[in-house]
Task: structure prediction
Amino acid sequence: MDRKPAFRKLRCYALDPFLSLQVDTLDIHVIEYTLGWEDLEPGPVGEYIEIIDYDPTSGTYYKPVNLNDHCILVENGLDPSESNPQFHQQMVYAVCMKTIKNFERSLGRKLLWADRKLKNGDEVFVQRLRIYPHALRDSNAYYSPHKKSILFGYFQATSRQPQKLMPRSLVFSCLSHDIVAHELTHAIIDGLFKNYNYPTNPDVLAFHEAFSDIVALFQHFTFPEVLGHQIAKTQGKLDKQNMLGELAIQFGSAIGGHGSLRSAIGEIVDGKWIPAVPNALDYAKTKEPHARGSILVAAIFDAFLIIYKQRVVDLLRLASGGTGILPQGEIHPDLVNRLSKEASKAAQHILNMCIRALDYCPALDITFGDFLRAIITSDVDLVKNDSRDYRVAFIEAFKKRGIFPNNLKTLSVESLTWPRLGIKCSEEKEDCIVKQSEAQDDKLEMDDYTGKVIKHLIEFFKGYGNTLKFISSRNEIHKHTKKFLRDNAPLIEELLIQIISEDKDHEMAFGFGTITGLMFLPDNKILKEMGLDKTARGKKVINLPKFWIEDLHLISRVGPDGNLINHVVLTLTQTIGVRVIEGKPTGSFIPEKDEVANNEGFEFMASSTLIFDLDKETLKYAINKPLLDLEHLKKTGEFKKNQKRIDQQFRYQYAVPDQEHNEFNAYFGRNTNNRFQEPFSIIHNH
Amino acid sequence: MAEPKVTNALIRMYRMGTGDCFAIKFRSGRKVMLKMLIDAGVARSGDFIEDHIRDIHDWFDGTIDVFAITHEHNDHVSAIQKCKELFRDDFEIKKIWFAWTENNDDPMAKEWKDIMGKKKKALKFASDQLKHFVEEKFDDANANNFNVSKLKESTLSFSESLEEFSQLHGVTGTDSELEGMKFLKEEIADNNIEYYEPGDIVEIDGVEGLRFYILGPPRDLNAIKKEKGKKEDEAYEHNKELDQDDFLSFAMRDDLEMEDDDLPFDDKFVDKDKLQSLFYEHDEHKWRNIDYDWLQSAGQLAMRLTKGINNLSLVMAMEFEETGKVMLFPGDAEIGSWESWHRIKWEEKGLPKDFTKDLLKRTAFYKVAHHLSHNGTAKQDGLELMTNDKLVAMATLSYQNISSRWKGTMPNRAILKELITRTQGRLIVTSMKELFYDPEDTIALRGKVDATRQVFKKNNKFFFKDFKNIKDEDKDPTEALYYEFMLRD
Result:
């Protein structure tokens, strides 16, 4: 056959089989996933994932499904069935691919899983995520960053309503759309930001959890079939949007521990959804990752409701003869149809906005406030005209829960957008012409040396962007990026060294330091004064805290008005070791070299994510988690460690664990600054 | 002529480490009427335990009128195992008290024992397997991984935690009963065991003016299973109950072949040829193997099992008829048990309905449950009801002798704070060394307690006098084997 089919259709449960027993008279039991075609080996094993159905609790292999089998193909997959493990494999495959594609479409690039780090320090490409649908006898399911695998559990459950569920019947977490999407999102985020499973403040793990839940929830909402039934049921009371909140919680209720993230959305009392009343102290008061994560989920859900309301207000007027009040009784099926399509569309938009925002998030130490700024910035970048006030909806929802970004004086679309640098290099001259963004008050003075660095960086990345534009294989992308870095990182380092050595007056250390928040001043005396003498390390002549290129990727996406975005994103990371002396984070050590016990010191990381616009040849944004105290630097020109961030990390990692909530961690986990346990297993064990 | 009434008591907390051992002399004036020993154990057995037991022997002149064991955890019975001969040959033990849950003739207790036994074995199996994996297989599977040593350390630490939990419950060979417990029942007891259940009121022949009210363990299974007061809005109860573990426990056993019933799917779906194993077990892919990961679910099992057994603690409130004072010895009872005390039908015994509240209100001596952990002392149903302004509390916690992993939950700072406030500093702890009062670990507990005692100097006068070892506080346990407090008339 010359032509491969464009799609593969697979039947799956619309709701968890368990849940469909709970939601009364649900007529949508099964929906069809339409996925892009790919050749599959039995397993299924495809381009992105390999499903191996090995059950270690009994040492059993279950036969792998061959989705390319003719009989299975003509019927759009196996019949949904709880008792057939091959259907389980099919469902996991379908949900994973749907989630992956949602990410790729929004991000405008191929997804790569987190690299595997070998003994010798090499980071190697992981072609496929490994998935074990029946790996645990537990109500748990988790992504293991060490094994690049997802482990799903199954367990016996007793229902609170025995008439609805056979006692001691088995519940399989891999048959829940929300659990599969949630765990897969953990894996995807790990591929994008490997430092997000290193908690440096209370938001980091909470973000991992919340984001995974957001993807699961809104992806579920993109199926109009699922919504239609509920919408029809609500009859005349559409304005309250009860059904959406109800559904969100019901989806959550079926997924056990994972469902606790939905708690901030509200609760169902006597079959009715009572939204939780947001409180401006929520964010400040709640520390436990799930509870904290639930605040973010609720904020996004709130934004979704605002947006949905705006989208359907005209429909309601049309259907009610202009009054907006629908008559009692059944709603017209056409209206049900239109409303569910609008809800599904709004969900897709929310999902896109949240996923796109990832490209504007800092590389480590993320806070919810950073995420809000990332959402706004990415949306401003791509969608010029916010005709439906999506951004305001987001800001409003965050504000209600007390989530405010640090260091902001006002809360508006303008102030929330990351400061636009707009540093552009002119063709003729060696140095740069600096264009200030309208929103930025403080003038950025660009010295020649910094200009040179940026100019060269842009040139390097133009080459990278041009090569990568024409590559679509994930393996090749990885190979080229690594090769590019291997070839160019020494050049960049040499260039930096050269410029630094020419730069007698430390202009570049100041200029580039102000942009990135990183330390590029190899002056032993100053380093010593900063308490960084012990962290100084580096090749050749320069003595600097270790820095490296953490990540490099190309983004290209198209906005709704047809505007094209071509960005190269470079993340620089710098690290120092902070030693704890007499209960205060004041000393220093060399990470990976000095042996320091967990309770005596921690690694402190800083990063700068530089976003280059390839078309305009400008450095557009720098999204920083600075090593330097930037305000002090700008005001006085003096270099100082960012003690505020160091203290924050110290306070978080060394605080007595929340005894009420994380007893499991107290017994079985270790300090928060430990990268070697299964972070997502522990967090779900709760 | 009737015997004189019991009016006061000397209470000795033996300082073996984190673990309970209380010797009490109930007296009438200076005349000893009853000698009672409650528990004898420590979390990590030190060798010097024998000194403590010998000291009890001397103080009691070799006679224990009542030996009460609250529950079957090593930190409450390990001394019996350690000093078997001493207990069997040198002591005369007149009566042994257990909770109803130890009574093999009680069908409900038997059912519990069976379930618990299975779980203990499962836990032991998981702990052994994980240890085996870390020791024998880990290096091979992770040969080419970055930073294997740290990865290993982390897995090892988990396996050690599990082992400690398993040891707390103790399983040797096919036996699921703790050795000390078994020895007490089989070698020491001589038809003199008595079992008690909530609502029982015990008076001892020849001892006037002293009454024991048994508050726990509850007869209601749900109360035993309850871990903490938490709102449930999930559709089903997933794995939070003890018997939910059966499915897991079934898989974790080495003595039985897996039966078809234990598999989640029909046999026809099983790939007997294990074709995928070529891929799964290939050297290249070994780092992704998950043969042992599922055993980590035993962590939850361990915690639930521990809580379950804590809630099986024999809870005794001892009332002095003359003074109305009450001493409360709750063992390691957790929240589910505390709540159940208030449901005891006292009115059937001719007592007021909320008699439990009354007992708590009159409590003048409180043995802090579960070594100051957060779930050891109920707030609303417990501590907040203890309003006696002369309340004295003793807690068995010592960082010199404790499983390192317990340090995360003991002491709970909120409970510590509440106790110190309520007792005006009259809190006695096995050892306050290395303990802190505040969550930030800046205020030493020792200093805080001393300062509080001074603030309420006037009211604490009796305490300075009746706490015999106030000058010995925090001395090495070998120099001060016990702390003694006298509860006066």
Observations:
- Chain B is about 35% helix and 15% strand.
- Chain B touches chain A through 69 residues (CB under 8 Å).
- The mean pLDDT of chain B is 86.
- The two ends of chain B are 22 Å apart (CA to CA).
